[in-house]
Write a structure and sequence with these properties.
single chain; alpha+beta; two-stranded antiparallel ribbon; 4 helices; 10 strands; about 30% strand; globular
Length: about 190
């Protein structure tokens, strides 16, 4: 049975926005399979399956510092990597290395880092190696991670993103599909 809404429960703008997103975009999420240890323990190593929310735009209104994102690899543009968004345009960046000069991220630039604190910076393949990344490289936000068949759950993103993604996660999360497609380590 179809649910009916009274006038004022949903604004016409929200209704139109929902219709357009679902009509033109279909699902708001997709599954992505990761490799490597850079994002452990957030995402399984050496492999993990994640649910990624598509973003309408990769800008400071749609993606926030602290979010785990999927982005085009700046070193190999035909590949994608998962990293945590550490800073966005306007942030001052300082290095522990006194030889390096501080700088400010320019408009539409971001800084991404690996979550794995056991890796040396040169092993992490993040902005410490390749520098600032264009925000346009970001294609989605990771909202759920399956590390193993029994170890899985929502990804800890910024509080703004968690609020935005809660309903999408409730509607589109299919743990059984993730289990079927997950590449478990034998």
């Amino acid at each position: 049975m179809m649910q009916r809404f009274e006038r004022g429960q949903v604004t016409s703008g929200e209704a139109i926005d929902a219709i357009l997103k679902n009509f033109f975009l279909g699902k708001l999420t997709y599954l992505y399979w990761t490799r490597g240890e850079e994002m452990a323990p957030t995402i399984g190593a050496p492999r993990g399956t994640v649910l990624v929310r598509k973003l309408l735009a990769a800008d400071p209104k749609h993606v926030f510092t602290g979010d785990v994102v999927v982005l085009r690899d700046p070193m190999k543009s035909y590949k994608y990597i998962v990293r945590r968004l550490a800073a966005i345009e306007g942030c001052a960046m300082c290095s522990k290395d006194e030889k390096e000069e501080p700088f400010v991220l320019e408009k539409n630039q971001c800084w991404v880092l690996s979550d794995n604190e056991n890796l040396k910076p040169e092993e992490a393949r993040d902005s410490r190696n390749f520098g600032p990344v264009p925000m346009t490289n970001i294609v989605g936000r990771v909202i759920y991670s399956m590390r193993t068949a029994v170890d899985h759950g929502p990804v800890q993103n910024s509080s703004s993103s968690v609020r935005e993604d809660l309903l999408v996660l409730e509607i589109e999360l299919d743990v059984e599909e993730m289990r079927r497609t997950h590449h478990f380590q034998v």
